[in-house]
Amino acid sequence: MSGTKLIVIGVAPHAAEVAAIARETTPERVIELVDLIETAPFEFDLTCLDALDPASCEVFLALDARAVNFSRTYLLSEIKGRGLKMARLVSSRASVPQDLKLGENSVIYPGVVVMTDVTIGYNAVVRTGCLLEIGCKIGNSAYLESGAVIGPYTVIGDNTTVGNRVAVGANIKVGKQCELLTAMTYVNNIPDKTFYVDGYDGPTRIVRF
Amino acid sequence: MISSFDNKGFASDDFFRLEQERIFSKYWIFVCFKFMVDQPNRFATRDIAGVPVLVQNIGGEIQAFRNVCAHRQRKLQDEDFGTRKMTCKYHGWHYGADGKLLAVPYNDEYYHLSQEDICKIKLESFRVEIVGEFVFVNLDKDPIAIDKQFSQEMTDLLKDLSGHFNREMLISKFSFNANWKLVNEVLRDNTHIPFLHTRSLFSQLDHKVDPPPEDHGQRSSRIPDVQEISGGGLTHIFNDDKHPVYADKVNRWGDVDGYFEWRFFPNLHVVCPRGGYGFSIEYHHPIAPDKTQATVYMMTAATKANIPASFLWGQMKGARVVLDEDYGALEAVQAVVGQAPGHSVLGGGEHEMSALRNLIASLVRGVR
């Protein structure tokens, strides 16, 4: 798809970072950065999409981790609904095997090391310095902060954020919509909607009774 | 006006022990919501005045026990809530209705307890009262009636509010280094808002300070009834038309766009942070004279459509900003309050705080 233009739509600084990765990786490609205007919390002005021709461009939606990616999921469906193709971006300075399965609108930052037999869903962000061990699966809209280590055959659920310098052990199942932000090694399975954040006594959980 | 107890009441081990014995062991204490224990084998646990308390659904009935196996004193349930029979994880002793011992593994081979012995063994039980969805437990063998602790108006309110609770709930715990009474006091004071919450609450509220009531001088020395101490607190009507992003997905409580909160003596705080679209229930557990643990239960009003978990968690993080502003100030008070003897000087408008201190002082001294 390098013959088509790449439109990076998003909010600074994340969008600028993603555009820089794209420029570095495919210097010959035309890359445009379009600011996405947040008109109200979780609401965006999508008129910037109107001028885009699905035949001549690919789009990458680059938002930060706000709202545990809910906004990104919503916007992604809006973009796809207009027939626009979504890009996948892997930094040329990341170490990634041939067999990586990478979903659309996902980005791998510089310095990431991915081992073999790894799957990364759509709309995921893997930031600088992450290590993804053999056979691990990263869910849709997951967000791996810098330096996160995901152990062999571990599963990270959809819409889950793994924080800076967090390690998740081998064969662990981390649920959907979690935040693992306390820097430590997680060695037990973690249910959906569980939040480990400094300053709390143990995890905060959302439970349906 | 001078406070009715010495500042050491916020830091003294003796005063704390008396509070545990004469307040927390004598009054109805919130443990969990009924929907957390509404199915057989569901349970919730809570430490009250140093006593590990277990609320367990046994065959459809909600009962409360000391959460300790009669055999070798292990806790029967470890988690804050869950679904599990009352079976000790240590040696498998199993309990049933009314805390009666039902089964002892290896009894024939090893323990040799007679059937008569087994029939006599039961868990210590406590009284339970359920108000709407709120489950209260009282450790006292002869507890006061709950309607002596909370007025009809307040129990009706609990029923009304809890009828709007969604069954998906955020549960969060955090500790801070301040006495539990300081938390109770900051909830009775809105003059701190422009100073502590300059960038958070103050910017969102049409903040005003009501003049003190005319009878404050008379009230300041009076010891109030326990019932009087529970009641509505700060009410602020918002000066904007903002609603939570999930507003159209819930059946809200009431129809006023404001902040409402109520205090239930001794340590329960119920908040409608934004116009009845959601609720925050805060339980303040006294751990030590200088340490309190808050458990925050947060839920939206009953939903008409699915709401992503991120909204509740986002709301919790927003609330935490305000709570940390409060607790930061309380920790600064706690750092020095017990060091110098003396009594705080309270102003005339602080009659509610004065009444609370009078009540606690009278309960601790055994005056009532």
What does this protein structure show overall?
The complex is a heterodimer of chains A (209) and B (368). Chain A is mostly beta strands and 209 residues long. Chain A has two domains: 5-87, Rossmann fold (3-Layer(aba) Sandwich); 90-196, 3 Solenoid (UDP N-Acetylglucosamine Acyltransferase, domain 1). Chain A is built from two helices and 24 strands. In chain A, the strands form five sheets. In chain A, strands 7-9-12-15-18-21-23-24 form an eight-stranded mixed β-sheet, with helices on one face. A five-stranded parallel β-sheet of chain A has the order 8-11-14-17-20, with no helix packed on it. In chain A, strands 10-13-16-19-22 form a five-stranded parallel β-sheet, with no helix packed on it. Chain B has twelve helices and 15 strands. Chain B has a seven-stranded antiparallel β-sheet. Chain B has a six-stranded antiparallel β-sheet with strand order 10-15-14-13-12-11. Chain B has a two-stranded antiparallel sheet with strand order 6-7. In chain B, strand 12 (258-264) and strand 13 form a beta hairpin. The A-B interface holds A 41-42, 67-70, 159, 177, 179, 192-193, 195, 199-202, 204-209 and B 33, 35-36, 38, 81, 167-175, 245, 293, 308-314, 316, 320, 324.
